[in-house]
Design brief:
The complex is a heterodimer of chains A (about 425) and B (about 450). Chain A is mainly alpha-helical and about 425 residues long. Chain A folds into two domains: about 130 residues, no CATH class; about 220 residues, MetI-like (MetI-like fold, Orthogonal Bundle). Chain A has a three-stranded antiparallel beta sheet. The radius of gyration of chain A is 31 Å and the shape is extended. With about 450 residues, chain B is an all-alpha fold. Chain B folds into two domains: about 150 residues, no CATH class; about 240 residues, Orthogonal Bundle (MetI-like fold), CATH 1.10.3720.10. Chain B is built from 16 helices and two strands. In chain B, strands 1-2 form a two-stranded antiparallel ribbon. In chain B, helix 4 packs across helix 5 and helix 11 crosses helix 13. Chain B is flat, with a radius of gyration of 32 Å. The chains are: A mainly alpha (about 425), B mainly alpha (about 450). At the A-B interface, helix 1, helix 10, helix 11, helix 12 and helix 13 of A face helix 2, helix 6, helix 8, helix 9 and helix 10 of B.
Chain lengths: ~425, ~450
Amino acid sequence: MSNTKIIRESLKKRHLAESRFKAYGILGIISATLFLMAILSTIYIEGKSAFKSTYIKINIFYDPSIIDPEGTRDIEEIKFANYRKIIKNSLKNYFPEVIGREELKNLISFISSSEEENLMKAVLENNELIGSDKIVWLKASSTIDVINKNPEMKNLPESNRLISDQELVWFNKLVLSGDVKFGLNKDFFLKADSTEPEQAGILGSILGSFFTLLITLILSFPVAVAAGVFLEELAPKNKFTDFIEININNLAAVPSIIFGLLGLAIFLNLMHLPRSAPVVGGMVLALMTLPTIIIATRVSLKAVPPSIREAAIGLGATKFQAVIHHVLPLAVPGIATGTIIGMSRALGESAPLLLIGMVAFIVDIPGSFVDSATVLPVQIYLWKSTAARGFVELTAAGVIVLLTFLILMNALAIFVRNKFEKKW
Amino acid sequence: MGFWSFFVIFCFISFYVYWYSTTKALKFNSDVKKGQKLPSLPSYYGTHSFFWLFIPIFLLLVSWFFLKPFILDFFLLKKIPQDFLANFGGKPKMLIDTIKSTNPENFFPGTNPVIIDSAKYFHSLKIISDSYVYSGVLILGLLSSTFSLRKISVIFKARQAVEKTNINLLILCSVIAIVTTVGIVFSLIFEALRFFDKIPFFDFLFGITWSPQTAIREGQIASEGSFGAIPIFTGTLLVTLIAMFVAIPIGLLSAIYLAEYAKPKVRSTIKPILEILAGVPTVVYGFFAAITVGPFLKEIAIFFGFSIASESALAAGGVMGIMIIPFISSLSDDVMSAVPQSLRDGSYAIGATKSETIKQVVLPAALPGVVAAILLAVSRAIGETMIVVMAAGISANLTMNPFESVTTVTVQIVTLLVGDQEFDSAKTLAAFALGITLFFLTLFLNLIALKIVRKYREKYE
């Protein structure tokens, strides 16, 4: 065998190895992309149904003898009337065959308990309703909602189905006569947490996140920009500034939960600040976001060409004036981009907030920085830890909302960068 | 005076002080009789006066924010009748907490009238004290800024003074990073030392049972609880290993492809996609691990006829690995791109194919950087919380079997500290002992990684 032949054969092998190696690389990228797509599609599939909910059409008779027996139209009287009974009577009319006490109880559990309040509000708004008949769509309870969204569950044995055979018969009757529909789940966007999946909403935690992030921004942005300006432009090169730099780099890599421990030990136990409050959450997240913004500030200051500084100093400005009047304004787009990215990271952060009590079950929508509140990712965690079946789709829907906010923030960051950042 | 009315008044006064001082300086300059002009621009005199207003107010308000709880407690304790306090039969702290949590408008029937009175007093005190403090600091600030007005003269160089203050403020802001680190270290060490008072250090570090159940009542059976952290450390190790098993091959292969094979256009589309993986909040990964991956693995296990825990280390670690991919790929990509082209050209010149060049020249040259990337990823995996909290178990099993449920350091910290807790029990303090282990471990990994990266950069730049 000649040398050329040996080489030709080995070359074939080596070229095969070459394309194999390249294929591995492509495989790596494909699998990473597939993982990403799997995560996003799972969340979309699980969560999209939470934005709609089941409504049941019922003819409600606003019985004067229940709402306002005296006929005085007294507000207190109307407020505390037994609206559950009104719904019950209407259901009784729909299902004349149901008479037993226990059965009626099961029947009325078809309707979400939040509808009693809605009926009350309708009556308060319009007194004329009392004594009249009206066809309304009432929100179904979570179990009915789950069955309606997953029709295949009807074929399961009774024990695995959430509702009994008898309830299924009633439900099928409602479906057949066209009295069941899907509508927009408004409660999801307008309410805070609840023990009932169909009444739980995301607004409370969105506002909690908003207050928390506002505190984070107010505290971390000025401090971080100041620190970045000092370290990049004005600091003398000495051991002290080196030490600050090492500290900042390390803080950027400290696990987030450690900041939670810091918040618990110092802000809550030492300083007695309120538990579960956005102000403390904001302080903890601010410490966590500081390094991100400091680093972004330094990078964008570094990108400003030295000629700007030299020109300013040449015209008689002091070093400080040159930096504040000329260099810093040119670095603003980069700093803004870094800040938005830091904020979006803070928005997704939940571990440190668990430790300072922002993990409580909170039904009220927070109205200030010291009200008990929870934030979006923690709300997702809370819903995930709840056993009821209806919370699964809520959890995924919460994730969708969170991701939407993150995408918006990152899009804003990209927009700011492309629109305002100057390439030198 | 509420905070916002204070804020509005403060803004007004600031503008007024700035304006007044600036015009005073302007007048001084235009006053021909004096003959000499001020050494700095008039606006610097304005800024100087503003600092004299702002700095005392700011310092006082910050200290008020932190001292308020203590001062209120002090006054509240003085208000409570001595005999009631003596008869309460608990610590005064408990009584104060009860009073604070009582709403005087809407209390439980049967609440002691003394408590209701004190609660009323406390709530009015909370509002009144704020308005006293706000008015007080405003008056003080005004006084100090009028004092600064007297300094406007030819011998006072306002610009130098203002710039010096500015630089000091900037230094103060930079020092916050140090303060935070010191705060972390001290709070962790302080609480951890209290823990080691109760539990010997070596029992914690080398004990093999972890069941942090402490007694609610004195003398209860099994009241001690045992705090051997070995099962937690092995659990963390197992989850991290699984994560690395997923992340290192995928991350490294992606990095090789991106750095060596991909055309610039492909690179600029794929890199952001990989980076999205790092931007997805960890709670989302946790949800994915618990809802999708866990049940999926279970089905596979049933199909092959073996059993797997529903909160297995495999699910948590695997999903964590997905999260870690971009950390490895982007840093490795950077270090491989930084390898000088001359090395590659030399390899091609003696007849090596591209893959041979990568394997035998580029990778060895980039190895320190790749190792640093892996170390950083490991430290990220160890400190990761939400994925394991949502998808890994709570009970500490001393096992290396990936199909079983294990617990990690971060999971234990969360479980020990979420919810109401007595702050001096070994159970809650144990979280700080775990926290300090975590802190120093990740710090150590990061320092090594940064050192390697720095050394490597010096070599090629």
